Fold these 2 entries.
Entry 1:
Amino acid sequence: MEATVHLDTRQRIGPIDRRIFGGFIEHMGRAVYEGIYDPGSPFSDERGFRTDVMSAITAMNMPLMRYPGGNFVSGYDWRDGVGPRAQRPVRADSAWQSLESNHFGTDEFVAWCRAVDTAPVLAVNLGTGSIESAAALVEYCNLPPGTYWTDRRASNASEEPYGVGTWCLGNEMDGPWQAGHVPARVYAEKALAAGSLMKQLDDSIELIVCGSSSRNMGTYMEWDRTVLEHCWDSVDYISAHRYTAAKPDTPSYLAEGVVIDQILADYRGLISYVRALKASSRSVQVSFDEWNVWRRNYDMKGGWSFAPHLLEEEYTFEDALVIAQYLNSFIRNCDIVKIACFAQVVNILGPIKTSREGVLREATYWPFVMLSGATSGESLRVALDCPELETSGRGPVPVIDASASYDAEADRVTLCLVHRSIGHEIAVDVQLGDLRTSGVEVEILHDRDLEARNTWQRPGRVTPVPGRAKLVSPSAIRVDLAPPSMTLLKLDVSSLDR
Ligand code: AHR
């Protein structure tokens, strides 16, 4: 098989917001307790933070982290999680039928974010919570000392305000499973009231309003339209969520990039419609703040225990190829997606798993590290000429899923090619248009076995390895893609007219 990729720096989609490489941590299962916070572990520092987890997360280059939920937030009172630990109450978490010790709360989370060099994004409870408690959290985090809540922050943890810049107005409020779920219009009114109060306290904050929790919801897009029409002038982003489930056939599963593009096309259309309706000069963008592979069905009830082992999904090489396609799609749609959060980061659905012995990096960890580490600058349109792959669920799809970024300051082009067929190798000619290259570094994620995974016994089974590409001319390279695989090319470039 053969394919051609054409790149040209005159074909720019726009700047890539690095916040598409964000993460998400919820009080669920062992994500917080035994995940990032584990005071009993020999790996933990004096604050109880797992240092091995911090290193694994730092290597993911995540510019932001969403917290504390998720479904958990819709029954959470943040005031339970601040102040002296001995006085914090144990609560019943109805979302996951677990016990919450509240030993880790807002102050610990912000301190942890500082330690892993990521910006905290906080979700407020718009399920059982009031708009007053949402506003009080903004006051607690962002105002200078001198008020009831800011003096509490100063005595608990920090004189300095935290400056939390981005806030989620609840979580998945369209879902009947959500504590305090209400019809779209009712949610929109509460979100607008809460958001206005929060912005009156700190007008620099950005707000994310809840969109649909999945495209499978009967209210998909109708919920989003109602919410967006009502809150248009006050919010900055609408959220999108997706968890990719197992498919009966591999080709359909490996065509996931097509679905992510479709979801983003839906939001592009909706935003454009509401903007026209309002004759507005401002825009709202997408925060894809929960996404991942979630293949199997599990019992998600924690049996009223602390840090129950919920989900603990084990990921395969095939899943890693799906993760790469989510990121490719975010890069292709960078004009509309400004934030995205890999959900979740540790244990549960995480690319990092913990045990008493250390951390395991799942297969899904690697595409994220590869792309997050290499992507900067602007997204380039990838003109792709390649064979199609027949899928039962998605019809014919291009056999390659691709994204490219161009960093003019670093003279660097990054091209990510996911070969999603299990059949044949593909020889790809990469034509660099108005650029020449002086060198290329190639990284490949490949395994003959789609079910291959990293285990505690064999933790390095699925990891990136160096590959090769041939310089055919100063403006053309040739690379062979193994079936199936993710190949990342990092090219040192200069302009042809220089
Ligand atoms: O990430 C697990 C759960 O999935 C989150 O709590 C919820 O928002 C979503 O349905």
Entry 2:
Amino acid sequence: MSQPGNFLDNYEPSGAALKIHVYPAPILSKVATPVTEFDSKLEALCKDMLYTMYKAPGIGLAAPQVGNSLRIFVMDIDYDREEITMADGSIEYRLSGFKPQIFINPIIRPIEGEILYEEGCLSVPGYYEEVKRVEKIQVEYQDLKGNTHTLDADGLLSVCIQHENDHLDGVVFIDRLSFLKRDLIKKKIMKEKKRKQL
Ligand code: QAP
Ligand code: CO
């Protein structure tokens, strides 16, 4: 899982905070392109994606969400997050126990079962809804060096991999809700967007 000889060993967040595109940004609906160059530019992008994810804080982030239509996502489903209320009442987080994972050109094979999980998304801030996914999956993916790995996943890891993989196919979790729920959320988002423009 960990890829020896790169920045993921003894990881501490560093890099640049990238701009997260928010629904209905067109890039979120595009099918992303496979990675073909396993170079230092790819490593820098993944590093910045992880930094952006932890800063949010979130548990998964796909390249299209930060404006790169490439088949990459980063994930960490169980780092520790201590909430700190500042003197002015704002909230900050002290993070530790990082276990960053990078998935490049992932291929998902459904294995079995169904799971309902309440999902959120950094590109749909403030909205959380239950989505039905396959419970057990197998994912084949490449690491930063281009080496191929296979991982069996269930529970939250499986849900998160499927959620992030959807982003690579131009699908956002609200696209998987009933049209009634999806339309309600879309309308609220558009209303909120207009309110902010005033
Ligand atoms: C995808 O999502 C996911 O609305 C990752 O205000 C989430 O990290 C897969 C976040 C849940 C499975 C289950 C969302 C942060 C983070 C928000 C995230 C927000 C702040 C979402
Ligand atoms: Co998402």
